[in-house]
């Protein structure tokens, strides 16, 4: 399973990078395969693992912000591993 999510603190002003870094730190410390880009952080693992990481990432931001917005998208595909890399590699092969 791959979960792409975005955690945004609300009510803290326009510069939210410091708060988002708290969430990304939780993801990176989880030990699960992950990737962060300008819009989302993706994490790969089993359902319980991924949802726990998302919950803890939200909690990290919630600890410092009065309100939190969460956007989440999941690719639930049993038996697939290394999807973070293989899905991108497939597109790159077709572009090449």
From TrEMBL:
<dbReference type="InterPro" id="IPR029756">
    <property type="entry name" value="MTH1187/YkoF-like"/>
</dbReference>
<dbReference type="InterPro" id="IPR002767">
    <property type="entry name" value="Thiamine_BP"/>
</dbReference>
<dbReference type="InterPro" id="IPR051614">
    <property type="entry name" value="UPF0045_domain"/>
</dbReference>
<comment type="similarity">
    <text>Belongs to the UPF0045 family.</text>
</comment>
<feature type="domain" description="Thiamine-binding protein">
    <location>
        <begin position="3"/>
        <end position="92"/>
    </location>
</feature>
<dbReference type="Pfam" id="PF01910">
    <property type="entry name" value="Thiamine_BP"/>
</dbReference>
<protein>
    <submittedName>
        <fullName>MTH1187 family thiamine-binding protein</fullName>
    </submittedName>
</protein>
């Amino acid at each position: 399973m791959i979960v792409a999510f975005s955690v945004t603190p609300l009510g803290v002003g326009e510069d939210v990078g410091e708060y988002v870094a708290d969430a990304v730190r939780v993801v990176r410390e989880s030990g699960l395969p992950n990737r962060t880009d300008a819009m989302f952080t993706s994490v790969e693992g089993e359902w319980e693992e991924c949802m726990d990481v998302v919950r803890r990432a939200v909690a990290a931001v919630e600890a410092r912000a009065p309100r939190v917005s969460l956007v989440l998208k999941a690719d639930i595909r049993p038996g697939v591993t290394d999807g973070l890399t293989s899905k991108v590699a497939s597109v790159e092969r077709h572009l090449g």
